[in-house]
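How a chain folds remains the central question behind the approach discussed here. This step matters because it turns folding into a mapping between discrete strings. The sequence in question and its structure tokens are set out directly beneath this paragraph.
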Amino acid sequence: MIGRIAGRVEYKADDHVLVDVRGVGYVVYCSDRTLAQVPGPGEAVALFTDLLVREDILQLFGFLSLVEKEWHRLLMSVQGIGAKASLAILGTLGPDGVSRAIALGDWNAVKAAKGIGPKTAQRVVIELKDKAPTIMAMGAQVSAPSPAAQDEVLDPGDTAAPRTPAPRPATSQTAQAEALSALGHLGYGPGEAASAVAEAAASTPEADTSTLIRAALKLLAPA
């Protein structure tokens, strides 16, 4: 499975980009938000990718971060959400916005995406809410791919599993720092985020990052 590509942009269209990887052109579909950040023709680009396999077609979808890719995969696990709908949600909210909307149960934010009705938006929030802290923790641990790492480009004939950064073990202080970073990305101020994380950490000193995020969110936005 192709999990990452890095190469040169040949052209950008309304919903996809063509990336030349050592002479092979890959059509990669992206959200509007991601396409806006992809450089112009002739420039280097690196994208995490997800391969959709159907009986009659193979489609690559590209993402600037592992968090965006993981949300795409999770969104598509919800009934009524296909690749197009997933990209619409990510294009409207961005990965951090999706994390915030789902973590806080804000289905109206999800509904703002083109083609997403209220029932589908509610289903997305209900089915994925418990998974939001884990994805947020991932965002604090990994970064976007580097176009400069051309030695890691996946050759067309390379069947090896794609290399992705491994999350590092979180000590108590590391987990708190990552939880603060994740809450900051969700729009919480440093003071309120630090207070919530400190209170959560005091209750469960050995908690990992995702557990701290989940506990802090309960304090910041109680159900």
Remarks:
- Residues 104 and 222 are 9 Å apart (CA to CA).
- Residues 66-131 form a domain with the DNA polymerase; domain 1 fold (CATH 1.10.150.20).
- Residues 149-170 have pLDDT under 50 and may be disordered.
